[in-house]
Each structure stands twice: as C-alpha cells, then as structure tokens.
Amino acid sequence: MKVMIIMGSQSDETVMKECSNWLSWFGIENEMVIASAHRNPDRVRELMVNARANGYGAVVAAAGMAAALPGVCAAYTSLPVLGVPLEGGLQGGIDALYSIVQMPAGLPVGTLAVGKAGARNAAVMAARIFALSDAAVAEKVEAFKAQGYKI
Prior knowledge:
Blueprint: E1 2-7, H1 13-25, E2 29-34, H2 41-49, E3 56-64, H3 69-76, E4 81-86, H4 94-101, E5 110-111, H5 116-131, H6 135-146
Parallel strand pairs: 1-2, 1-3, 3-4, 4-5
C-alpha cells in the first residue's frame, strides 16, 4: 500500500516534501498530487473515489486558510485521511487548524499540527497505521522510537 499526499497548491509542496521524505524513510511508497477542493473539485473526487483501487491505504491532505481539502477528501473515501493545516491565512495557520479539526461527527479527519511538524507527524501516523498489517513498517516504527523519534 501507498500514501497519497494531496495539496491544493504547488506552493504547499515545500512543506509536504517533509511528509514524503519521512514516509520514504519508513519504506512507504507515496505520491504527491496537486488538486484543489475549490479549483478542481471533480479531480479531487475522482482521486478519492479511486484511491483504494489505485493501491492507496491512506491519504494525507494539506491545506491552508479555509482548508476544505481534507474534509472533501474524507467525504469521498473510506480510507484514513490525515489533515495537515498550513499557514497562509490567519496568524500561524489557526484558521486552517480550526477548519480541519472541526469536522462533523461521522466524517473524521485525523488532524495534525500546523506546518512541517504536522507534515512529519502525518508520515509517522500513516506508518503506525500501516504497521498494523505490515511487519517491515512495524520494524521501522520501532527503530524510529528506539532512536529517539528522529530520522
């Protein structure tokens, strides 16, 4: 299985590269995709509806300001969706954080910290999810813990 890292804009790629790098360290294949919930909603829907069939086991969705992307992703897939709020609106990305964390009951998005810390933790969370059924990833998660949570 692999992880889809989806973001609304090319400018988000610098932060989300952190997620990709950490997923790669855990031995988890990943792909970065740019698709906006506002500018390309049909593409987001198509990506999510077909994610499982295309070999994805989780989605990391990053967005700033209104941060609709993680919620839209969660609406169209039953895979775990991990949301990474990004700066760009209100000071420190607090608007994106509130937008992602306040999903309605029954439509969860696992919400991480704002920015690079959140991108890194999304990779760790995805690794922990995959470790439930993948012994090689479980070994990497244990190695990560043993070395003080550093890559």
